[in-house]
Amino acid sequence: MAFNIEDLYDGITISSGNDGNNYLILICIHGNETCGLEAILSLQKSGELKSLLKSGTLSILLANPKAYEQKRRYINCDLNRSIAKNDLKFDYEIQRSKIVEKYIENADFVLDIHSTSGPSVSHALPCDLSCSENFAKTLPVNYLITKLAHLTVEGGTTLDFAKKQNSCAVTIECGQHEDKKSIEVAISCIKQLFNLKALINPSLIMLECLKSFEVKKGFLFKQNFSCFDFVKYGQEIASDDLGTITCTNLDGGYIIMPNSSPKIGEEAFFWAISK
Ligand SMILES: [Zn+2]
Fold this sequence. Notes:
The chain is α/β, with parallel strands linked by helices. The protein has two domains: 5-203, Aminopeptidase; 209-274, CATH 2.40.50.100. Helices cover 23% and strands 28% of the residues. The chain contains seven helices and 14 strands. An eleven-stranded mixed beta sheet has the order 1-3-2-4-7-5-6-8-14-13-10, with helices on both faces. Strands 9-11-12 form a three-stranded antiparallel beta sheet, with no helix packed on it. Helix 1 (35-45) crosses helix 7. The radius of gyration is 18 Å and the shape is globular. The structure holds zinc ion. Residues 29-30, 33, 114 line the site of zinc ion.
C-alpha cells in the first residue's frame, strides 16, 4: 500500500477486502496543522495502517493541499467554515469543500485531525449524535467538549455537515502545531478509530459548550487566557465597545480556544461548563 503525500490531495481509499464500515480520516483541513499527516506517514512506514483495518474501507484526504504546501491555515477562506455553504464564489476552499463533502457523505466514521495555534492539551469535539459522542469518549485525549462544533459563528464545519449525513464524526485537537507530542496523540486516536468496542477513557474530563462569543469592535481580553482556564462567577473575561463580558454561571466555567489574534466576526472564545 504505497502512496505519497500528493496522492492524498484527491484522497485515497484502502479496502480491507471484508465488509464493514467506511472510515474517513481528514488531515490538513487547515494547511498548517500537520500532525495528522505525520501520523499517517508514520503508520504507513511501520506497516500498521493496513493491519489496523480489519473490515470495511479507509479513506484518507489531505483536505487543503495549497494551504499545506504554503504552510498556511487557508488560502482564501477557512475551509472548516465553508463546508456545504453552496457559495458561488471561486475561492479555493469553496472548490475543496466539494471534495470534503463527497468523502464525508460516504463515511460511517470520520476522524478530523487538527492542532492548535497556542499551547493546549488534547481534546475531542464530537458532533451532536450519540454514536459520535460514544466514539469520542474512547479517545486517548484529555478533554471531550460536546456541542462546541455546532456553535461556531459562521457554521460550515466538517462536523455540521457530518451531523446532517448521520456520520459519526469527531474532530480532535491534538496539541500545539509543531509539537511532536501532537503526532503521538494523532497516532493513538487513529488506532482507536478501528477499535469501536473500546472502553471509555477513564481519565477523560467532559465539558459541555454553551456558546461562542463573537469578536466585536474594541474586543480585548481582561487577561492572557489559555485554553481550559477556569473562570469564577462574576469574573470579568473581556470587554468590547458594547460592554464587559463577565462569567454569569454560579459554578464558574471554562474558556475554550481563546483567540490570540482576534479579528472582527471570528470566535473570540467558546464558553463551556462541567458536564
Ligand atoms: Zn484546525
